[in-house]
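can u do me a favor
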């Protein structure tokens, strides 16, 4: 391919529409603008969203600040230092946490976070674990298992 052989593709170059050159041209008399009205006049056109003086859509809608993600999962969080209340080598699940008052709602999922230290081996069952919580439980000699 050489510079003098390059051609633009078919349909890329279009002939300019010539207005106001008589009715025989197809674009005479009103020059494709119809009869009278705001869009037939010269000068600046109407802005996007203008509805002819009617209250525009963006003003009719309520002012929404932010949005609510309908798929968001709200977890109840329990920190590791709170799990020291349980006995050594015991299994700690949703029911045990509810009985000791660590959780309020039995229907919400539980996430264990890694704040504080765990000084005993526990088998902890929860819906989710943070990476640091999982590591600290395993270092203390316990196991962290996720349940649905």
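np, heres the sequence
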């Amino acid at each position: 391919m050489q510079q003098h052989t390059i051609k633009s593709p078919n349909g890329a170059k279009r002939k300019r529409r010539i207005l106001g050159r008589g009715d025989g041209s197809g674009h005479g008399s009103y020059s494709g603008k119809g009869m009278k009205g705001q869009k037939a006049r010269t000068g600046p056109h109407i802005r996007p969203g203008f509805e002819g003086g009617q209250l525009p859509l963006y003003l009719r809608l309520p002012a929404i600040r932010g949005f609510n993600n309908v798929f968001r999962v709200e977890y109840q969080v329990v920190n590791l230092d709170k799990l020291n209340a349980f006995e050594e080598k015991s299994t700690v699940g949703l029911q045990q946490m509810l009985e000791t008052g660590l959780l309020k709602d039995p229907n919400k999922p539980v996430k264990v976070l890694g704040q504080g230290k765990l000084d005993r081996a526990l088998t902890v069952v929860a819906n989710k674990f943070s990476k640091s919580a999982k590591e600290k439980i395993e270092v203390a000699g316990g196991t962290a298992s996720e349940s649905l």
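Residues 48 and 122 are 64 Å apart (CA to CA). hope that helps!!
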